[in-house]
Specification:
Blueprint lengths: L1 E6 L3 E4 L4 E15 L2 E6 L2 E5 L5 E5 L5 E9 L9 H6 L2 E3 L1 H13 L5 H19 L11 H13 L7 H8 L3 H12 L3 H18 L4 H7 L5 H12 L3 H8 L4
Antiparallel strand pairs: 1-7, 2-6, 3-4, 3-5, 3-6, 3-7, 5-8
Helix pairs in contact: 2-3, 4-6, 4-7, 8-9
């Protein structure tokens, strides 16, 4: 991701090998994308396809802009959507813009499963715009939600990836997320974090050190574990462990 405040500067013509998702927080930007003239301002969302030359400069009205960019792998969207993204690059979609802003906040302390789910839902929304289709979501499936829960339970302390579950269950990631959330009233990411914290509580009360518990239940470091534990339990794990130990 890239955040910038631009005043009186013109980007030269260039291109990226990634999809670029752009939101503007102040001012407005103009850009030429493969000879098509486009613009973006607050409340809009823009997407620039990979391999297409473009420039960028503040609009004449404001003379400046503040923006946030996401650079996403070339497989973020299908190749056939490059042309439509050149023709229509900017959209008025408050829900999509909010989702992208929340993803930027999440990426300051990234959580794999959560980021994966958010990106999949954002990609789905862009596809609807670029294919000129009204949002039509498949009805959530309780049985698929149960199967996803079984997958998550089998990966509580390991690496859980929604795209792996989607391949096994023959469903899209957004559909899995919607089915699971409706069935259990919690996201897959929140479910797996809660299960890890529950497991950690038991290990801490058995006297295991905080650092080893953090790794054993699937967090990548002690600080990461402590942040989540405190959010769920209200106190740090070391204090929780001391409060429950019975000494001979």
């Amino acid at each position: 991701m890239f955040h910038a405040r631009i005043i009186g500067y013109r980007y030269p013509t260039h291109w990226h090998d990634t999809w670029t998702v752009l939101i503007v927080d102040a001012g407005a930007i103009r850009y030429d994308l493969d000879s098509r003239h486009h613009g973006a301002a607050v409340e809009t969302v823009s997407i620039l396809p990979p391999g297409v030359a473009h420039n960028g400069y503040p609009s004449e009205r404001f003379g400046r802009f503040r923006k946030r960019n996401l650079y996403l792998n070339s497989d973020f969207l299908p190749d056939e959507l490059v042309g439509p993204a050149v023709d229509v690059s900017t959209f008025q979609d408050r829900q999509l813009r909010t989702a992208i802003g929340q993803l930027h906040d999440r990426l300051r302390a990234p959580e794999g499963l959560d980021v994966e789910a958010r990106l999949a839902l954002i990609a789905e929304r862009f596809q609807q715009h670029l294919r000129h289709r009204a949002p039509v979501a498949r009805e959530p499936e309780p049985f698929i939600a149960s199967q996803l829960r079984a997958y998550l339970d089998a990966h509580i302390t390991g690496k859980a990836a929604l795209h792996d579950a989607a391949r096994v269950l023959d469903r899209s990631v957004p559909h899995l997320v919607r089915s699971f959330t409706q069935r259990y009233h919690i996201s897959p990411y929140a479910y797996i974090v809660g299960a890890r914290i529950d497991m950690a509580r038991k290990l801490l009360l058995q006297g295991q050190p905080v650092a080893s518990v953090a790794v054993e239940v699937g967090f990548h470091d002690q600080a990461h574990f402590t942040r989540h534990f405190r959010r769920h339990v209200s106190i740090p794990p070391a204090r929780y462990a001391r409060s429950g130990l019975v000494l001979d």
